[in-house]
């Protein structure tokens, strides 16, 4: 019976996979002709309860691939915890000779196994890393970086399936620090969001979402091998 209960909870976590809180990206778009790979792992806020004092949370994993479109923009496809897909477009707003990059990123897709449509809008700012000022594309990939970034993010879901719950917009901000290179790097990040619980499983509407993103095919493969990339890790709080 205990194993059935655990399996049921794991299934609930999967089919109610949350929105993609983590950005895991600086404002600088990917170079034309290049691509980037990111695996973002973050703590999903409570999605259920064991009893009156303990709530369930889950470790969520998103995969994203980005391609350069032109000198000021790129496009990304994100797989959200194995239960959805979001396509987004990032556009650089600032000139290449400024100290800070500012970009806007909009996206849309579906989550929760197609039960909800997802819409997002993100304002991104990061320190200019100089990756486009000089050098070849390969040099910019291999050059070590230390780039703080942050911004504001708004997300909204809309029911697509009969019986799917309605929800309020999720609004918040995030801060991160990207270090390493675009081919082998990490980005710890923390987000704070106003996120009303549509299922009433949380007492608070403000959630803190810690995350870490791995960048580059080599880094993602290393992390997957170290973790074995099993199912979500459930814990209580």
Describe the protein's architecture and organization:
With 237 residues, this protein is mainly beta. It has a single domain, classed as Lipocalin. 13% of the residues lie in helices and 51% in strands. The protein has a 10-stranded antiparallel barrel with strand order 1-2-3-4-5-6-7-8-9-10. The N terminus and C terminus are likely disordered.
Features:
237 residues, mainly beta, Lipocalin, 13% helix, disordered N terminus
Overall spatial form:
globular
Along the chain, the helix and strand elements come as HEEEEEEHEEEEHE
Biggest sheet: strand arrangement: 1-2-3-4-5-6-7-8-9-10
How many angstroms separate the termini? 22 Å
Number of strands: 11
Query: What do we call the CATH topology?
Result: Lipocalin
Strand content: over 45%
Helix content: 10-25%
Unreliable stretches covering 5 or more consecutive residues: 1-17, 132-142, 230-237
| Structural class label | mainly beta
Overall mean confidence score, pLDDT: 81
Rg value: 18 Å
Total helix count? 3
What is the CATH domain class? Mainly Beta
Instruction: Count structural domains.
Output: 1
Secondary structure blueprint with pairings:
Layout: H1 2-15, E1 35-49, E2 55-70, E3 73-80, E4 85-92, E5 100-111, E6 116-127, H2 137-142, E7 145-159, E8 170-181, E9 184-194, E10 206-215, H3 217-227, E11 234-236
Antiparallel strand pairs: 1-2, 1-10, 2-3, 2-11, 3-4, 4-5, 5-6, 6-7, 7-8, 8-9, 9-10
Short description:
This protein has 237 residues and is mainly beta.
